[in-house]
Amino acid sequence: MRRAGLSRRCRRLINELRIPAPFDLDEFLRCFAAQRGRSLKVTPLPVLSEPGFASGVWVATDSTDYVLYNDRTSPLHQRHIILHEMGHMIFAHNERRLSDNVVPDGGFPNLEPRSARHLMGRVHYSEPEEEEAEMVATLLLEAIGEVPGPSRFSGLLAEAEALLGFRKPTRARS
């Protein structure tokens, strides 16, 4: 039930977004920034591909939201990472903003691992917040046709996986 409630909340928030059709990530980011009334910069950060790092991070400063992501992965995974970080913004998970002067001139592209760890150490999310951001990313990818949504066979597949021992049953069997 919690998952269904989470899905409804996420869909409600997604319905408030301006999603261009056909979908264009850059245009969507511009629309999202305009809706928030804040500058948004999405930048690949190679250090995020190293072990021990999250694949993305949202950094909010006084004037700008930065989404830093691992660009050493597939294009679909990159979009998922970016949309996941946007999910944190949509839910206002980290309204604690850093001073603009914390950001190096030119942004973050050459951030060293030690500095990246320090920066990421300032951002902490609870498990429910991560679930919300993940659900937003997944539903957005479904909405734009990047991944298929649930089908009438989804429940049947889950039951078959449970019977074969790949996952726990989702409900009591009669």
Automatic annotation (TrEMBL):
This is IrrE N-terminal-like domain-containing protein. It comes from Salinispora arenicola.
